[in-house]
Write a structure and sequence with these properties.
- With 576 residues, the chain is an alpha+beta fold.
- The protein has 16 helices and 18 strands.
- The strands form four sheets. Strands 3-2-1-4-8 form a five-stranded mixed β-sheet, sandwiched between helices. Strands 11-10-9-12-13 form a five-stranded mixed β-sheet, with helices on both faces. Strands 14, 15, 16, 17 and 18 form a five-stranded antiparallel β-sheet that branches.
- Strand 2 and strand 3 form a beta hairpin.
- The termini are far apart.
Length: 576
């Protein structure tokens, strides 16, 4: 199925977000956006209800006919994802062997049992020395928990995308002209994602727990206020005020720790970050960007991913974009990643993908059967309307349908017989065909004698191999035979083995082993030899020969003689 629409869902710690993106011939269009907040991220029922409300807000109706027609992808938070660079996979590993090699390496590299893990890989780099790639994994029960949150509304996701790849995807359009390193920091409710981009490529990612909810809890404790008051206070205080200063220090310390971790991960003399871009709900804390820039000595600014130029937002209300745009980096990136990547980096369990594919197949069969039934119903209803007698018309149509079914059954039988006959008539090469062809090529066997003849894999022309041994009294005879064989249009890949000599010098016998294959048109040649087409018979004309007599003219000869005499007399007069 071509991917031209996707619904991306981001289930966060304090809110869930959903975006609907449609792909046209030349652009990506943001169709709709919705967000909803909840209080208990550990309450599965509350999360499922929130996702259902989001789905209903987008007015996405699912029936048996359109289920799975949309690509539905969910985001997996960075804190649940483990990445590991595998630099030493053997260089001779082919693309077909690579999944097996990665699975073997994962058993030792993953921090949990491979049976309990879901993993994939990307960023494959090949060199003469080794193959390197990045292993991406998560616990199976964690991924299943996010998938189960959508079961109550009958949604089966087609992909599970780690949040850092989503952020990197939506940022690429903003960074297409950059050559320096830029750190994108998405401050969510329960976690902050740190993504280091070098140009439009992500070099490093990390998640840490200093986030918006932690500041809310800190203000509740510091100011002795409830959660609602703390959320409101969070929008008013500045990052360097006393009540928020502890949180700000922790946040900046985590940024420094992330930069140091990137320094170790990215093998470089020195990582210089040209800018830091803040997004997410936590980035709205007044003067947070200015405080980070002052403490880190790195230019820092706010970044709204909805205006990165990755999608056309003209179909969505400006008020919604202004209110929620800076929090949509993850769901927006998930949708773009699905629509633009030929092989999305997905941690969807294999069994879920198989089940989804089976359901899609059954849906197609049901649609086909329904369309056929609808067509038949239309014919029946048309016949009933047209007929003045409903009963007689129904009987007539039933009879016609039975006739059509009978004709179809008969046609299927004839078709099956024709297919069997065509298969039987298709010529199959045999060793006798090959012997006959070789005998035709080498009619004179007084100088070369055959010792052995062997044919393998004759049922597959590409893999067929012919082996035979020859004896001769001279090298010239063998060379002549090989020359004839090489010029034949039925044999190819001719390989001559080592020539051995037996007997004495006066009567030496030279033996050689020959290997060769059949050319693609050998089967046709064999068929023509075995079943020659007789030349067309030309029917002789037995009618009598047509004889045309000259016209009867008694004076014809006399007039001719008279004209000749007159011409001779004129010539004589001219000479005189």
């Amino acid at each position: 199925m071509a991917k031209n629409q996707v619904v991306a869902i981001d289930i966060g710690t304090s809110s869930a977000k959903i975006v609907h993106i449609e792909k046209t011939s030349d652009t990506l269009n943001l169709v709709d956006v919705a967000t909803i907040a909840y209080s208990d991220p550990d309450n599965t029922e509350q999360i499922s209800d929130a996702v259902k409300q989001l789905w209903d807000k987008l007015k996405l109706k699912q029936t048996i006919f359109n289920k799975h027609k949309l690509e539905v992808a969910i985001a997996l938070p960075r804190r649940f994802v483990v990445t590991k660079r595998l630099p030493n996979i053997p260089p001779a590993t082919t693309d077909e062997q690579l999944p097996t090699m990665v699975a073997m390496a994962a058993e030792t590299e993953l921090p949990f049992q491979s049976d309990d893990a879901i993993f994939t890989y990307h960023d494959v780099n090949r060199s003469p020395e080794a193959v390197s790639l990045e292993l991406v994994s998560s616990r199976r029960d964690t991924v299943s928990r996010y998938i189960d949150a959508m079961k109550d509304i009958g949604i089966s996701p087609s992909a599970v995308i780690p949040s850092m790849f989503a952020i990197a995807t939506v940022a690429r359009n903003s960074l297409k002209d950059y050559t320096e390193r830029v750190a994108i920091v998405d401050i969510g409710g329960g976690q902050t994602d740190f993504c280091l981009m070098h140009g439009d490529k992500m070099e490093f990612s990390r998640g840490f727990a200093v986030s918006g909810n932690q500041l809310t809890r800190h203000l509740m404790s510091e100011l002795q206020i409830d959660a609602d008051e703390a959320v409101e206070e969070k929008q008013q205080i500045t990052a360097f005020q006393a009540s928020a200063r502890t949180w700000t220090r922790q946040f900046i310390a985590e940024l420094e720790r992330s930069i140091s971790a990137a320094q170790r991960e990215v093998i470089d003399d020195e990582i210089e970050i040209s800018e830091i871009w803040l997004c997410g709900g936590g980035a709205r804390i007044p003067e947070l960007a200015e405080t980070c820039e002052e403490q880190l000595q790195i230019p820092t600014r706010l970044w709204n991913p909805i205006y990165s130029g990755s999608v056309d937002t003209s179909a969505v209300s400006t008020s919604i974009l202004e209110t929620h745009g800076d929090t949509l980096a993850v769901p927006l990136g998930v949708g773009i990643h699905i629509l633009e990547s030929e092989e999305p980096i997905s941690l969807l369990p294999q069994e879920v993908g198989v089940k989804r594919a089976e359901f899609s197949k059954k849906r197609q069969q049901l649609i086909g059967a329904s369309v056929g039934g609808l067509a038949l119903l239309t014919i029946v209803l048309g016949g009933i309307t047209w007929s003045s007698s409903q009963k007689s018309k129904e009987d007539l149509l039933d009879g016609q349908i039975a006739d059509y079914q009978s004709l179809q059954t008969e046609a299927n039988k004839h078709l099956a017989l024709n297919l069997i006959l065509a298969d039987k008539l298709t010529h199959q090469a045999s060793p006798l065909d090959i012997l006959h062809a070789l005998s035709t090529l080498f009619k004179d066997r007084t100088k070369v004698a055959w010792k052995t003849f062997e044919v393998n894999n004759l049922d597959n022309l590409k893999n067929a191999r012919i082996t035979f041994s020859l004896q001769s009294n001279s090298h010239e005879s063998l060379d002549s035979m090989l020359g004839v064989l090489s010029r034949s249009d039925m044999f190819t890949n001719i390989q001559e083995g080592e020539r051995t000599s037996t007997g004495d010098e006066r009567r030496a016998t030279i033996e050689v082993k020959i290997n060769c294959s059949l050319t693609p048109n050998a089967i046709q040649k064999f068929a023509q030899e075995r079943y020659p087409i007789a030349p067309p018979m030309i029917k002789e004309d037995t009618s009598e020969d047509l004889v045309i007599s000259p016209p009867e003219n008694k004076d014809w000869s006399e007039d001719s003689d008279k004209e000749e005499i007159e011409e001779n007399e004129d010539d004589k007069e001219k000479e005189q």
